[in-house]
Amino acid sequence: MVARRLADDQVQPASFAFNNDNAKWAEWKIGLYPAGRQQSAVIPLLMRAQEQDGWVSRASIEKVAEMLGMAYIRVLEVATFYTQFQLQPVGTRAHVQVCGTTPCQLRGAEGLIEVCKSKIHHDPHHLNADGTMSWEEVECAGACVNAPMVTIFKDTYEDLTEDRLAEIIDAFAAGKGETITPGPQIGRLNAAPEGGRVVLLEEATTYREKFVPPAPPPEAAPAAPAAAAPATAAPAQAPTTAAKPKDVTEESAPAIKGPSKDAKVSEAKAEGERKAADTSAKANGEPNKAMRETATGAETDASKIDGGKAPGKATTNATADGATEASPKKTRTIIAPKANPKEVNPVAEKGGDAPLFVAPEGPADDLKLVSGVGPVLERRLNALGITRWSQVAALTPEQIDQVEGSLNFRGRVARDNWLQQAEVLARGGEEEYVRVFGKKPR
Ligand code: FES
User: Fold this and answer.
1) Residue 334: how many CB atoms within 10 A of its CB?
2) 427 to 61, 79, 262, 382: CA distances (angstroms)
């Protein structure tokens, strides 16, 4: 591990201050933490200071300590611990961090360091002749599976050879770093095997798309099931032993002690079918349909035991005839409420992504440019009627509550600062986003 110290006094600025945009951002960031926990913002603020000046100076550490009410030494400890913080000026076009930890070393990191020495500077932490490039050796950056690798600012470049790193350094030195695609440099997908994926070949889908059947159109909706009980039967009600007529003896109501023999056979048969379905599904690589039906309440145990007849029958009979009140069917009806759809799919329980807004006409904005919104969230926001950045920016607290409730992502809007991001995007698109936030969206 390399000793990490602050830069020499000659290069340290006398003072540091966040510019207006960053000062507003820092105020918002600090406000995200509960009272008394503002010190948790130390890493984001140090990162913002680095993004503003290119490196973390002593003055910026003092400023962050002052803003968060921390001792200077505590912020210094953080800044000197993480190699993501540059403690002295680095190349304006690229600062190449070569991982020198064992997996990368075994896969050629020493050769990459030689490339940096020959193309940038013989020594780490030194700028090249025109001050645009620098390099250093760092510890594991977490991309070991694609070793060897380097990090340049916030991007990683993996599966490197010496020749490929030389090309990458040349591109950055020429101010054309954006022409190099970060990530694996051998065409593999993320950390998938070099020859391509061998598992998880299915297209990604949401739980809802894959498992929840679409609702039938209103005209095709099945008619409400006819009452299975005689017209004279009393309304169905939850059976309890307390409702047993007083003149019914234990002899006349033997089932109160437990399910009848027939019911036990039926129940065992139903359970056997469920297990068989489960085993078959697993063998085919499919989800456990039997469990799913039970979990979503699509089919109660009572109806299964009853051969698929109307679920209310057992309860109705029980009410109409006290002697059969404690029949096996009633016993199963009592335990059926264990199926709680909320535990499985709270969004579906709330009616799914029913529109909350009227979507504006015209082309939709790319909501995925808002950090924190991925393809799935974008689809669901669109389903709610939100298709424009300006709509997101104008959300009121009540609407945020509705949206988060529907998405089942409480606190997501504030946590990822959707409103400010969307406001900036609506005002000037990606260019404005880069100007305000100092980085490209997503
Ligand atoms: S060892 Fe190099 S990224 Fe982990």
Assistant:
1) 15
2) 33, 34, 71, 20
Could you tell me where the DSSP H helices lie in 146-300? 162-173, 207-211, 261-283, 289-296
Task: Count Cα atoms within 13 angstroms, Cβ side, for 228.
Answer: 15
Give the integer Cα–Cα distance in Å for 113 and 90: 17
CA angle 36-39-43, nearest 5°? 155
pLDDT tens track for 281-328: 444 444 444 344 333 333 333 333 333 333 333 333 333 333 333 444
Alpha-carbon gap, residue 191 to 133, rounded angstroms: 28
Q: Tell me if 120 sits within 8 A of 96, measured CB to CB.
A: yes
| φ and ψ of 136, to 5 deg | -160, 165
Which residue is associated with the tokens 């926990």?
A: 37
Q: Kindly give the parts of the chain with pLDDT less than 50.
A: 226-261, 263-264, 277-351
Rounded CA-CA distance 315/334 in Å is 9
Structure tokens at 368: 């995925």
102, 107, 112, 113: CA torsion to nearest 10:
30
- Ligand 1: distance of its center to the CA of 103 in Å? 6
For ligand 1, residues with CB inside 6 Å are 99, 101, 103-104, 140-144, 147, 149
Tell me the best of 104, 138, 155 to mutate to test the pocket of ligand 1, counting ligand atoms within 8 Å of each CB and taking the most. 104
Closest ligand 1 atom, residue 99 Cα: 2
**Both structure tokens of 365:** 């904005």
Q: 432 CA distance to ligand 1 centroid (A)?
A: 35
Round to whole Å and give the CA distance between 436 and 320.
Answer: 72
This model's pTM is above 0.70: no
